[in-house]
Amino acid sequence: MEHSILEIVVEHKCVLGEGPIWDGVSSQLIWLDIDEMEIHQYLEKNQVFKTTKFSKKVTAVVLNKNGGLVAAVEDGFAAIDLENGAVKMIATINEKGNRFNDGKCDPNGTFWAGTTSYKEIIGSANVYELNTNGNTKRILEHVTISNGMAWSLDQQTFYYIDTPTCEVVSYKYHKNTGAIEGKKTVCKINYGYPDGMTIDADGMLWIALWDGGKLIRVDPESGVILKEVLLPVSNVTCCVFGGDDLENLYITTARSGLSEQELLDQPLAGSLFVLKNSGFKGVKAFEYNAGK
Q1: Which of 14, 120, 166, 189 could make an S-S bridge to 270, C-beta 3.0–4.6 Å?
Q2: Structural domains in the chain (count)
Q3: Where are the beta strands (DSSP E) in 96-224?
Q4: pLDDT tens digit string along 247-284?
């Protein structure tokens, strides 16, 4: 089945649109503008768009099984309130020259999020876990720009992107402990830089390409690109499946990093796009399970 026509969801452009998640209970998409310290909400059924401003950069959000959102913010993990913009720190992690970036929950309900170097100093960033008791530990170290994460459908493999490496890698994931081991290369990216990532109901990876102007669907077993979705903007940042049947593919993009001429050439940069009834289906994201 071919993709439907690419549509713009709302008349709003992010500086650094990122981190989309789908809340099936309220039928809404939630995504971020990291540089503007904003969280956006789009209620799909009644097409309501809302923005909440925060006092610090929110870099990734996940749903909390107990209600609300848990976030990676520039200096750690926090509970956030979309009603009033309040940020309640759960764990502070300060890395000089770094801030937190992308993150997701693993099958155990713990929140994984990595950091990124402002100056792209090689190997200066890390990946951390916020466990269900609110404690943190380091999972990976010596990365540079920690980005996309996903777990295989059988919950035995963790997929990961450190953007400057231009590759997607996998690790054996031990659900009983949350430990990972045995790094392998899934695929090399030779056009643009891999950014955010999601997995579909067939176990295929969808990877957004920063400075690549496209989204690619990759078979993680063979590394073969199965499909490309071209966008009218260069900096494609992330994607997630939403809608009642998880068949609408939402795609975030950014204006950040573009020159004045590129912004003129790409008037839709920073927009949230959607492929309705995409022909593919997503899977429900894992949620943070506090006090499990």
Answers
A1: 14
A2: 1
A3: 98-105, 111-117, 125-130, 136-143, 146-151, 157-162, 167-174, 179-188, 193-199, 205-210, 214-218
A4: 999 999 999 999 999 999 999 999 999 999 999 999 99
